[in-house]
Write a structure and sequence with these properties.
The chain is globular. It is built from 21 helices and 3 strands. A hairpin with a 4-residue loop joins strand 2 and strand 3 (about 275-280). The chain has 2 domains: about 1-170, no CATH class; about 200-250 and about 290-450, no CATH class. Helix 11 runs antiparallel to helix 16 (about 350-365). It is about 60% helix and about 0% strand. It is mostly helical and about 450 residues long. The model has no long low-confidence stretch (mean pLDDT about 95). Pfam families: DUF885. InterPro entries: DUF885 (IPR010281).
């Protein structure tokens, strides 16, 4: 894995923002913002590709192959504007909350970000010539989100007066040049192994059964919702960890409210490694089912546990952040949900949502579903989650294929667990230790060592 470590070090050198977000704090990471759209950055990325393209390392090959396609197909042009995790809102939040206070460093980052905005406008113009535009509905959402930020008036005016009316009415990658090929590349990059869109779509259809027969009970206030989040997370810390793991963090999980300025730009819940906290979005309290909140907290708490485990065992940064195999990260967190008391996979709202992602993500990005078809499909199965369903759809449009990792990772881990226990290789605690001890590597690598 020495080849991967060297590759990881080279990536950090050209990407100070990434370096800061994984915990590297020096003058470069604190005072710079990485312009991933600039010719300079792309040239440096290409040099890294040439340097490592012939290395015999399976983990490294996944990353190097993606760099090749990223540059060849200009994948960086395909999601220039996003309403899910909007880059501008994230940048403003990070400066306010995440970065340590230092006026000089902040001014330097803002100077870099100003150049990024100019590059973004240039890339938007380039994308128009190549007929690679974002969906009109995403563009409208983006404009609404950044309207209050006066520092970005030049970008706002360009998009509103020159770009918006040229945006496409379709929403899937498949409607863009090389879109279907790019979607397959994103599947491979996210999963760490390849499954065809057809296989994934059909798997989702097969898994979706008759759901939600039980009566759903929803929260009546933000306070009630957050109180239960704290209660369930404490139970997970005090009971679940002792039952299934050797390592136990010294303190209970940290649960925070999503800041109000981010509520319309974030999902129902997520874990932020740099803040070492699980965030819950109180905007969705009316759509959160009391019967399945437990599994939601289980998922996010075990994201936090996963990172704490790796840091406790002093894994090097390249094993924690460099591999970054989403199928293991999200698959493990989703897998842990099955250990909730009275867990019923066929009548669990969040389990159903993850299965639906296989159908809807592929439906949009490979089979060309319209927004109306995708929205109606989600509302058919989850009729009480209208606002969250909208957020989910924005996610599949903005970051295609990422949502596929949850269910696929979960079932791969279950197969490995069952084989491990069947062949008497150890206890469930032994399995979980071996699953996590090599960092966020690919499931293929983990299968080989198990």
């Amino acid at each position: 894995m020495s080849g991967f470590k060297n590759y990881f070090d080279d990536i950090v050198k050209i990407d100070p923002t990434y370096g800061f977000m994984i915990g590297i704090k020096n003058k470069s990471t604190l005072s710079h913002y990485t312009n991933h759209l600039s010719d300079s950055y792309l040239k440096q990325l290409y040099h890294i590709y040439k340097k490592y393209k012939n290395k015999n390392d399976s983990e490294l090959k996944l990353h190097i192959d993606y760099i090749k396609y990223h540059i060849k197909y200009k994948i960086y042009l395909y999601n220039l504007l996003t309403s899910y995790e909007n880059h501008i809102i994230s940048f403003e939040y990070d400066n306010k909350i995440i970065y340590p206070p230092n006026k000089s460093y902040e001014l330097s980052r803002r100077k870099d970000f100003k150049l990024y905005i100019k590059t973004l406008i240039a890339r938007l113009k380039e994308s128009l010539k190549l007929k690679i535009t974002v969906p009109r509905l995403i563009c409208k959402n983006f404009l609404k989100q950044i309207e209050k930020y006066k520092d970005y008036s030049e970008l706002y005016d360009y998009i509103k007066h020159h770009y918006l009316n040229k945006c496409r009415k379709t929403i899937g990658l498949c409607h863009l040049p090389n879109g279907k090929n790019i979607y397959k590349i994103l599947i491979l990059n996210n999963l760490g192994f390849y499954k065809s869109p057809k296989q994934i779509h059909n798997l989702g259809l097969k898994l979706i059964k008759k759901h939600m027969n039980a009566v759903a009970h929803f929260y009546s206030s933000r306070e009630e919702f957050f109180k239960d989040c704290l209660k369930y997370s404490l139970y997970i810390y005090e009971v679940i960890i002792d039952k299934y793991f050797y390592y136990k963090p010294p303190h209970p999980f940290i649960i925070k409210k999503v800041p109000e300025e981010l509520e319309h730009n974030r999902s129902l819940a997520y874990y932020n490694d740099i803040e070492n906290a699980v965030f819950v979005n109180l905007r969705f309290y009316k759509e959160c089912n009391k019967n399945t909140l437990y599994s939601l907290l289980m998922h996010e708490c075990f994201h936090q546990y996963h990172y704490l485990f790796m840091k406790y065992h002093k894994l090097p940064k390249y094993k924690i952040h460099g591999y970054n195999n989403i199928t293991l990260l999200e698959g493990f967190a989703h897998y842990m949900e099955i250990y909730c008391e009275n867990y019923d996979d066929d009548n669990n709202e969040y389990s159903l949502l993850r299965k639906m992602r296989l159908v809807v993500d592929t439906g949009i990005n490979y089979y060309g579903w319209t927004y109306e078809k995708a929205f109606n499909y989600m509302n058919k199965y989850l009729p009480n989650r209208i606002e969250d369903n909208k957020t989910e759809l924005n996610r599949y449009i903005d970051i295609p294929a990422q949502s596929l990792c949850y269910v696929i990772g979960k079932y791969e881990i279950i197969k490995m667990r069952d084989n491990f226990i069947k062949n008497k290789k150890g206890t469930i605690k032994d399995f979980h230790h071996k699953l996590l001890i090599n960092g966020t590597t690919s499931l293929k690598f983990i299968k080989n060592i198990l």
